[in-house]
Write a structure and sequence with these properties.
Length: 158
């Protein structure tokens, strides 16, 4: 009887440690994905960012119309990269929930692209990712303070 109880306890601890190791591996992979996504934004190559999305993935920013598919996501990303040739994105955190992941970021850059104001911006936001079965972004819902961003680009205080 004691022997069976010891075996059951040992199996229980093995199962718990395997699940814990699996969760750590999954979190490490997600963190690495976030780091590579951040590097893609900093690469000044918009196709790099789009490659993190599934073929028909969607990016929605501040409740606007979705950019659907890698071509539209590439064009959206190119707009920021062109406007801010020195852009630096940093990953502030990743918060994983059961059905989504929140990718929190900070953006710094100077609006020196074509028609730029020459003003610097510094703002933060996050994207709520839903990943597909291949680990690519199926849907990203992005949010940032657009009014604050616009004030900084224009260099106004109101």
């Amino acid at each position: 009887m004691k022997r069976n109880l010891l075996i059951l306890n040992a199996l229980f601890f093995i199962l718990i440690s395997c699940k814990h190791d699996s969760m750590n591996t999954q979190q490490e992979k997600l963190h690495e994905f976030g780091q590579r996504y951040t590097e893609a934004w900093n690469s000044q190559n918009p196709e790099n960012v789009a490659s993190f999305f599934s073929e028909q993935g969607a990016l929605i920013v501040n409740e606007g119309e979705p950019y659907t598919g890698r071509n539209e996501i590439t064009e959206f990303t190119k707009g920021f990269m062109d406007a801010f040739p020195d852009l630096q994105l940093t990953m502030d955190s990743l918060v994983q929930e059961s059905s989504f992941t929140d990718y929190h970021w900070s953006f710094i850059g100077t609006n020196t692209g074509p028609g730029g104001t020459g003003n610097s911006v510094e703002f933060s936001g996050f994207e709520r990712w839903t990943l597909d079965e291949e680990g690519l972004i199926k849907v990203s819902i992005g949010t940032f303070d657009e009014d604050d961003y616009t004030r900084q680009v224009k260099g106004t205080t109101d």
